[in-house]
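dude i think i finally got it to work??
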Amino acid sequence: MNFSFYSPARIYFGAGVRNNIGQYVEEYGSKCLIVRSPVRDSRRELHYSEITESLDNQGIQYVVFQGVEPNPTTDIVNKGKEIAVNENVDFILAYGGGSSMDTAKAIAIMAANQDLTWEYSFNQFSDPFNDLDKTVKALPIVAITTTSGTGSHVTQAAVVTESEKKEKLTLFHSCLIPRVSLVDPELMLTVPEKVTAETGFDAMCHAMESFFNPRATKLTETLSLQSISIIAESLPLLLKDLTNLELREQLAYADTLSGICLSNAGAEAPHPIAESINGYFPELAHGQTLAYAYPSYLKYVSSVIPNKVKTLLVILKDYNPADEQAPLHEQAELTIKHFIQKIGLSQPFTFKGDKDMLIKELQEKLFFNLPLTNSDRLKEILSQSL
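look at this
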């Protein structure tokens, strides 16, 4: 049993850990850039003030960039980078969900390497398991996650949409793994039902894809299956009781596990398919675009990795409406459709224009092969998903 496992983020997990953020980050400098979305919720703002108070108490100065938007673009990152450089900050602090963390990570690497272009970066840092340029560093990153879904607080990935080409691309580099990650379930009590479902399903997808991926090890498989089990049980319950702190804690824990697995084993077809859709439709949540892709994907991989799909179906047995004697691919497809319906993400993709032309344009971006899914199969799954 030979494998490599890398997860260097220092994780502080539990209700109330946000109040100690100043102590946790003082070693990274005396001034930071806080990256966050615009103010929208008074309770979330109270939590934010507790975080800034902790920084104040520790003598850490901060400037704030509130330009984060869902599915952040290179234009947004460039604005944040300019502030980081002009203010000469020592580290970047992300406060929010996946978009805030993606933006913060991208700012951290672009601010520390001002001669990098986006074209070079997207080409050079496209492999999640091979840091081609060891000389590249990023400003230290601190992540305070307020959702349970992206796993970005423990991964080496930053997902950014190239503004001109409308391509959702990913930067991969070990320097993008946060030095410190705070997972405080109390920060997630204000997340609305739809966002809870979308981010929760995203976390489940991370766990499923890292379990399916041939790069998976016994260690990551164990963590992935635990994450899937927790989400399958807790997410539907949480959607009926959004202020249940115990369920929020369970989902936050599962999200952290799946992020660790994703960073070590990698994603599979649903993620690039979903990201290609988001490149054109940034208003769609990533979890929703994953929900479009999963039924066709599970139907396909049932013939490629049947034993792993069977293991998944054991965990999801309560959501399997198919006859026990039905073919595996049929059971897999119907089970995930039923789960997606259970969490409220079963609405079909709608598009007023020429859908065939749209699909063709999206398929042109899926020109690569993955461990289980070649380019032709990616395009086929995309077509079936929309």
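Residues 11 and 223 are 16 Å apart (CA to CA).
im so relieved honestly
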